[in-house]
Amino acid sequence: MAEMPELEDEDKRLVRLYERRFRNHGLGLDNEKRKRLATILNRLTELEVRFMCNINENDSKVMFTREELKGLSSAFFETCESIVDDGVEKVVVAANQSNYFSVLGQVKRPETRKRMYAAYKTVCPDNVLMLQEAIRLRLEKAQLLGYKTHADFVLGDQMAKTPDNVLAMLENLESKMKPMLQYRFEELEIIKKAEMKYANKPYDGFYSWDISYYSNLNHQLEYEYDIDKVKEYFPIKHTIETLLGVIQKMLGVRIIKADGVSVWHSDVEAYEVWEKGEPKFVGHFYLDLYARKGKYGSATMMSIRAGYQKLDKSREYPAAVLLAGFAKSTPSTPTLLDHDDLETFMHEMGHVFHELCSLTKWSRFHGTRVEHDFSEAPSQMLENWCWEPSVLACISSHYETGCKIPSELVQTMVTARNDNALVDRMSNIFYSLYDMAIHNTTNAADIDVVELYNAMRRDISLYNDGDLYTFGVATVDHYMDGYDAKYYSYLWSEIYSADMFGSRFLKEGLDKKQTGMDYRKEILQPGASRDPMLSLELFLGRKPNSDAFLRLLSPDLQVGI
Fold first, then answer.
1. Could you tell me if 445 and 428 are in contact, meaning their C-beta atoms sit under 8 angstroms apart?
2. What is the tens place of the pLDDT at every residue in 70-114?
3. Residue 411 in contact with residue 266, Cβ under 8 Å?
4. Which of 263, 393, 482, 560 would bridge with 268, disulfide CB 3.0–4.6 Å?
5. What is the four-CA torsion angle of 507, 510, 516, 518, rounded to 10 degrees?
6. Under a CB-based contact definition with an 8 Å cutoff, are residues 253 and 274 in contact?
C-alpha cells in the first residue's frame, strides 16, 4: 500500500476493490477461522440451492369448478388438467406464481381468490427453516470477517455504503407513500362494497386477496383501451429503426448497420456505433430479437467484450448484444410490439449504450459493471422515452395505413401509466425493509422469520390476511438468490433514474443536445471507475433526491418539504 499515492484514482479504486474482495473471502483470517468460513459458505450454498429447488419443484394444487373460476380467459383453462371429483368436474390449478396472479387478478368470486391465496402462501414450508438458518449463518460469517451485521458486510461495496443510508431512503419513502396507499385501498374498498351491495351479499371486509382484483377492475373502469390496437402502430422494423434514431440523437452518435459481418444466426443484425460528425469508433452491438428453439428466452443485454485501455494506450472497443424473444413476422402480418415491448427494448438498450459509451482504463470498471444498486438506473431512465407523447408519435406507424398513433389514445396510456404502481412500490418497500430487518441485526437467532414477515407486511403494505395463517416468505426467492441485503437496490436505482430524467431531460427538453452529452460524460463514460454518487451529483448539479420518483406515483403530491 506504500505505493498507492503514486497511482491514478482509477488504479487506487481497483486495488481497494480487490483488497476488500480478498479479505471478504477470508484472506486475513487464521487457519481455524478460515476453515469455519469455508464450512459456512458451503452450507449457505446448500441452503440457497435447496430453497430455490423447493420453489421450482413445488407441485401443490388446488381444485375448483369452472364456475368458481369465472373471470379467467379460455386460454387459462387450456393449461390446466380437468378431473372428476365426487361426480363433479374440477379444474386442477397448480399453486404457482403465474396462476396465483391470474386467479387473484381476474376471478370474480372472493372465496376462490381466498383459497388460491391461502394455497400459494403456504407452499414450501421447509423453506422457512432454511431461511432461518441462512440469516444466522450470514451473521456469523459477517462477524467472523469483522463486520457488525450481514448488511454491513454486503453494503460496503455498494453505492448505499451503509444500512443507515438504505433505511433512511426506505423510511422516507414509506412515510410519504403509506398515506397514499391507505387512500388507494379506501377507493378500492368502495368498489367492493358497491359490488357486494349490487349482488345482495353482505360486506365482510377488504382483504389481501381483494387488492389485485379490484385494482384491475378500477383500471378497466377508468382507463379502458385495447392493447391489441396499440400494437398495430408499432411494427417491429419501423419501430426499432426510429427508436435507434432517438438514441442516436440523444447521445450524439451514429448507428450504422454492419452488413456482411459474421453472426451466429441469420436473425441477428450487427451494428457499428461512431461519434457523430467525426471518424471516431465507439463500439459494436448486435440485435438478436426473435425467439427460436434453444435460445435464452428472456430479454436481456449481454456484454460480449468490455472496453479497456491496452498497454500501448490504444483501446479495446466494447461489444454487446441485446437478446429478446419476439415472435417472427408472418407473410401477412409483421411482428407488432405492445407498449411493454417498447419499454423492454429501451431498457435493454440503456444497458447496451452504458457498455458502449463507457471509457475506462480497466475492464473491471467498464460500463454496466457498476455497483449493483446503480446498475439499473441508466436502463430504467431510458424507459421514460416510451411514455413521452412526442416520442410515441415519432416512432409509430400503423402497419397497414402508416398513420401515427392517435393522440387521445396516447393520453389515455400515459394517464394510466402508474395506476397500480403505488401498490407495487409499497410492496417493494416492505420486502426491502424486511430484508434489512433480518440482515441488519446482531441477534439473528432471536428472529422468527414468519412472525416478523407477517407483522411488517400488515404494517407497511397494509395487507389484511383475515383469519388465515400464511408464510409467504417461503417463496420470496430474492432472499436466497444473491439479493440478500440488496432488495432495496431496484428502488434505489429507480429513484435516481427518475431524478435524472425529470430534473434534466424533461426539464431542459428531450432534444437538447447538451443534456445528452452531459449524460454521456458524467453517467455513462465513467462506468464504475468512480463512485456513482459523484457521477450523479455532477450530472444533476446537486445531491439526488426522490421528488421526481414520487411525482411519477402521484403528480399532485407535494414533495421537497
1. no
2. 999 888 898 899 998 888 999 999 999 889 999 999 999 999 999
3. no
4. 263
5. -10
6. yes
- Grid cell at residue 83: 378431473
Q: Which grid coordinates belong to 91?
A: 379444474
Contact 300, 323 (CB under 8 A): yes
Show Cβ contacts of residue 533 under 8 Å, excluding neighbours closer than 6 positions: 159, 544
Q: Which of 10, 232, 343, 348 is catalytic?
A: 348
Which residues, 6+ apart, have CB-to-CB distance to 548 below 8 Å? 498, 499, 501, 502, 503
Centre a 10 Å sphere on the Cβ of residue 215 and count the other Cβ atoms it contains: 22
Active site residue 348: yes
Residue 357: pLDDT above 50? Answer: yes
Q: In sequence order, what are the residues at sequence separation of 6 or more whose Cβ sits closer than 8 angstroms to the Cβ of residue 134?
A: 44, 47, 48, 51, 479, 480, 484
**Residue 72: how many CB atoms within 10 A of its CB?**
21
- Cα-Cα-Cα-Cα torsion 339, 341, 347, 348, nearest 10 degrees, comes to -170
Q: Is the pTM of this model over 0.85?
A: yes
Distance of CA 179 to the CA centre of its chain: 24
CB 36 within 8 A of CB 84: no
Residue 1 pLDDT exceeds 60: no
Residue pair 431/453 in contact (Cβ under 8 Å)? The answer is no
Evaluate whether 504 touches 539 at the Cβ level (below 8 Å).
yes
Residue 556, pLDDT > 80, answer no
Identity (one letter) of the amino acid at 377?
A: A
Residue with cell 441469420: 266
Give how far the C-alpha of residue 437 lies from the chain's centroid of Cα atoms, to the nearest Å.
21
Of 181, 214, 200, the closest CA to residue 113 belongs to: 214
Q: The C-alpha cell of 351 is what? A: 444497458
